[in-house]
Protein 1
Amino acid sequence: MSHFNFKSLAFYGTAIGSVVILFKIVTVYGQNLKAPFPIDGRYRITAQNLPECLQSDDLILNIQQSGIYLNGSLLALSKNVEMPNSASTSETIVQPKPSLVGRWKNQQLTLSGSVNKLSSCNNKVNLSIQANVNQQTMNGQMTLNSTTQPVKFTAQRESNEQQQKKQASH
């Protein structure tokens, strides 16, 4: 009596061959993938025609990145106040929970959400940002509340050296 059955051998041969072919396809596809350019960090926004409640403050866009997915916070700081660095080991600084979500694709980011804690604005602000990022500079437009016209802005990324100097001054 033979333990080898032709149907069993054909089934196992097909199963193993399918797995090998699938592995080869996934490996070839994975070798062509590239990680997205890192854009996480703090960007100091410069804009004209901001609403009155934001004209007296410096606007900081804080972006956190995980692949193509983005989270962000818009912070309004008095023009005379230095921005704290959250990486401080000597003291704990509470950062606001990111209220903006979006994506990063083809050198363009989109973020949207509502911002509750802008120091000068009394109401919750619905915010939508679309921008192109070239190395350390962001150019785009933001819409504050759905009824206002888009505001064009430029934002410069703060380098790690700038953040470390601000941390040392505290």
Note: The helical segments are 6-31, 160-169.
Protein 2
Amino acid sequence: MNLAKNYISEFYNPIDTVENIFGAQNYQFDRRSNNEVAIEIQGKWNNMLLFFAWEENMRCLHLSCLMDIESTIEDRSKIFELLALVNEELWVGHFSYWTEQKMPVFKHSLMVTDTETEFAGKISQLTDIAVKECERMYPIFNVVLTKGMEPRQALYPLEFETIGRA
């Protein structure tokens, strides 16, 4: 029995790793508790709030990426139709709607094992995916949530595959 390994796995907190990753890149973060940290980053369209939460009992690290688009439409059926259509396009994670803030959010979780290797790399990869998906979907969410465009019409540009560079 390796006591050192058990001590490390029992008391390891991935939020420390998240802080190290973003601190090394000079991002400002807010350690809200021992198991939560928030980081505001500048995206292509607008600022995004990355929120990491560690659930120790489940050994699960959760990431939420909140897009700064406040909904002005009253018809929630459009929002939920858009979520269903957008989530069909994703391989990893999902979009949800934060009712309290009236904003869309990308979510994904990672299970952490005692034998986890390259965890910092997985956090970086997950963050990259979240930011890229939010940037890709931002214009779509924006026109539906602020202009009331029909979700299928807003998704129409995603049907085209771009080839080459302009």
Note: The two ends are 60 Å apart (CA to CA).
Protein 3
Amino acid sequence: MYKATINNHSFEIEPTEAGFLVDGKTVEWDLVKIREGYFHILYNNKSYRAELVKTDRESKTFTFKINGRIRTVTLKNKFDLLLEKMGMNSAGGNKLNVIKAPMPGLIVDLKIQVGDNVKQGDAVLILEAMKMENILKSPGEGVVKNLNVKKGDSVEKGQVLIEF
């Protein structure tokens, strides 16, 4: 499953053998590639000319000109959606808001303090779960505003641990 956001409106897209489901409904369209970056689309008996103007693969953002109007599409796959649900962002270098517990467990050690600058990949804490120590690393950059846990605390899955 994918989530596409176009001009602040989100759609769930699921590929099927017959085509695509968009928000649970089958979409019937005809797409023809004219040349690299240019397409002709027939949808609901209407004709559209589309040009791929810009691609940002890191943020998974694509800008199209469709019949002369600019549309920006952001795609998220199931892994992006999972990271977002956990309070993390998969795009490298993005500013963090929070880090949530990926599983229930016990806080064994905190590697950061309020006010610390955290970079992508920095160890932020150690979470013990099922008798294994898991080092949680920062998925992005930020300044620690608040630590919602301390050493020895038990946490639940999805609990906000650190605020940026």
Note: The radius of gyration is 21 Å.
Protein 4
Amino acid sequence: MKLIPRFMASALAFTAVFAHAGDFKPDMKKDQVGKTPVSFEPMVGTWVVAEDGKEKVIRVDGSPWKASQDAPTKLLASSARRLYGTSNEELMDNAKQFAYFPVAVLKGLDNFSEGAIRVKFKTVGGDLDRCSGILFNVKENGDWLSVRYNDTENNVALWEFHNGLRRPVKFSDRTKKFMLDRAAWHELRLTIEGVELKAFVDDQLALEHTLGSEPGPGRNGAAPLPDLFPANNPVLRPPVKGRVGLWSKTDSTSDFKDYLVTTK
């Protein structure tokens, strides 16, 4: 199955700003406050255009997360048809797990492999979680990778989603906390060069990971989970190749702006 059939390309068209060759930046001029963002396809969760001062931002609103448990599944089915031209049964099978992780996929960029993704974020609220992240390596079956900042743990992590389950791949140094001011904007940046992944918060290196490498021991020296071995998990095998977007968790409410993808 092709990622996006040609006949659907026009349906996903939107305005993008190309600041430099290789730069892909969504343009929010046509976005309306209170409406779904034009440049992102919400797959799970409530994503709306909000205002920060006089500036338009994209907000993931976690407040309705517990209100309706079947809504994520319905949204997922509808979005899958728009993106892929048909319902994806494997994607549907993962819907229950998907419901925990609000994601919105960037339109107009079918595939990202190498370069950088950056976004500015601000933590707004959340009782269970306060997470803001970059979604990448999104596959047709719903598998993905994400790099996220967690305001409840004050750390950065790389997560994978495969076979309907999410698992941690790498955490930032547990002795180093990123104590960020919630009232201020901060930048999360992901760079991918070949198999080398790096994540930064406000230009501070937070973690590094080599895609395709074998996992280390689990907690308390336990054997790593089988799905963390690249041989068992395609989303952990190089190269990075898939869609990108925004990521969050459960009842997190976060604002995002200045999303920029630079391709090599």
Note: The chain is about 10% helix and 40% strand.
